[in-house]
Amino acid sequence: MAGIADLATDERRARVLLSILSAPDDAITGRILARAGGVETIRLLEDDGAVPGRNRVDAQVWRDRLALPRRLEDVADRMRGIEQSGITTVIPGDAHWPQALNDMGERVPYVLWARGATSFLARPAADLVTITGARAATAYGEYVAGEIAGDLSRGERVVVAGGAYGIEGAAHRAALASGGDTIAVLANGVDRPYPTGHRELLDRVADVGLLVSEVPPGSAPTRQRFLARGRLMATLSGSTVVVEAGARSGALHTAVEAQRLGRSVGAVPGPVTSVTSSGPHMLLRNGTAQLVTDGNDVEELINHAPGNGADRAALGPAFARRPVPSTDAPTQSM
């Protein structure tokens, strides 16, 4: 009888299959994948033998967690539909695989799904700047985000954001208006733009920039996928800027991920009377972020980032190492 391993005929298809079966940012699956490769990882799901780095009980727990959620025929049908969609996949070893993602170790995505110019992913991380913040942004926040994104675009930086309402949407729009390059990192399939109110904007990004996701086509956004998406936004770029964010905003999670990976973090101050200023102010207060107010400040942040030839301490205590606060086609279509 045919098994799931029969669907994983090569590394690319095996990784696609893993993205269907496993949640993103699964360190256990990532650890096994790093040791065994995609094809062998899929084979291990059907086998009852040893799994690298896991005892017998833990191995079975992992197998049960990734067990087929439906009939094998249904999974095969989904893979055929994805293959026929023409959506691009990028995996480690491809020319356009972003090397910056390798810094995540066991948390590296199994595969990236893309619509648009995957060559943007091959740019040096220092050329990419993530701009994130509150969905319920103020007019002040959207204005500042747009000004920063426009300045960066005119400086030939790639603006990375998550396609959401508020700060991120303002960043994408400003980059497009400036004739610059922009990447939208999604928590859902690249074939179903979310939020729906940004369908036109995201389709425009796909036309002249790039939509990218680690979850397969057809996937809906969930809280866990949004959190996992934050680590991609943080890792792709050499610098992350938080414009506005509440005290429990997902943008703060992205900033913490960026700092954890040694990326530079900037935060825009705001009125002390505004709840959306609480997040950036907290990042500034605890030393996670450096204060930025415009594109020139962000360029300074980039130029003094680790690995760019400048001493991290030169920017002051905000950049000192501190504990992380809690809170050959280059690509192929499936």
Main sheet properties: 10 strands, mixed
Q: Tell me the strand percentage band.
A: 5-15%
Let me know the number of strands.
10
What gap, in angstroms, lies between the N and C termini?
Answer: 25 Å
Strand order of the largest sheet: 9-8-7-3-4-5-6-2-1-10
**Rg of Cα set:** 20 Å
Number of helices: 12
Low-confidence stretches: 309-333
Helicity, in percent? 25-40%
Mean pLDDT: 89
- Characterize the overall form: globular
Tags for this entry?
alpha/beta; 12 helices; globular
Question: What does it look like?
Answer:
There is one protein chain. With 334 residues, the protein is of the alpha/beta class. Helix content is 40%, strand content 11%. The protein is built from 12 helices and 10 strands. It has helices spanning 11-21, 27-36, 38-46, 56-65, 72-85, 139-154, 167-177, 199-208, 223-236, 250-260, 278-285, 295-303; strands at residues 88-90, 112-116, 128-132, 158-161, 181-185, 210-213, 239-242, 264-267, 290-291, 332-333. Strands 9-8-7-3-4-5-6-2-1-10 form a 10-stranded mixed sheet, with helices on both faces. The chain is globular and about 60 Å long. It starts with 10 loop residues before the first helix and ends with a strand.
SSE inventory with pairings:
Layout: H1 11-21, H2 27-36, H3 38-46, H4 56-65, H5 72-85, E1 88-90, E2 112-116, E3 128-132, H6 139-154, E4 158-161, H7 167-177, E5 181-185, H8 199-208, E6 210-213, H9 223-236, E7 239-242, H10 250-260, E8 264-267, H11 278-285, E9 290-291, H12 295-303, E10 332-333
Parallel strand pairs: 3-4, 3-7, 4-5, 5-6, 7-8, 8-9
Antiparallel strand pairs: 1-2, 1-10, 2-6
Helix pairs in contact: 1-3, 2-3, 6-7, 6-12, 7-8, 9-10
